[in-house]
Amino acid sequence: MSRLISYDRLMANERARSLRKNQTDAERILWRALKGRQLDGCRFRRQHPMGAYIVDFICLERRLIVELDGDQHGFPAHAVHDAKRDAWLQAKGYHVARFWNDEVYNNLDGVLNALLELLQTDRPV
Q1: N or C, where is the chain less crowded by C-beta within 10 Å?
Q2: Would the pTM of this model clear 0.85, i.e. be above it?
Q3: d(CA 42, CA 38)
Q4: Strands 53-59, 45-50: pairing kind
Q5: Over the range 21-31, which residues count as b (16 or more CB within 10 Å of their CB) and which as e?
Q6: Domain spanning 7-120 has what CATH number?
Q7: Closest to 17 (Cα-Cα) out of 49, 44, 63
Q8: Best CA proximity match to 24, nearest among 89, 88, 102
């Protein structure tokens, strides 16, 4: 019996693949620090489809999502979209951590320390 993949799911997977191939500079920098279980032994995925959304980074095991925000996220319309998205992800049991791209460029150690603290926080799964 063959499995049928919905068109939406197929498109989300294709979009995620495209985003992985075309990372922003901030995503590339953070990915170098997260890949290969470098942070607390946790496995992160990048550009992972979640429902109608594609999250920048996710640790499924610890239910942590990491989003990097560029300048466009400072506009009110985008902030509303981000809030709706975060609420949906949180309703699914995930914690969403947001960082500005500038934080990755100028304080990568601070970002990684904040993520490490979140990974080590006991949250119900």
Answers
A1: N
A2: no
A3: 7
A4: antiparallel
A5: eebeebbebbb
A6: 3.40.960.10
A7: 49
A8: 102
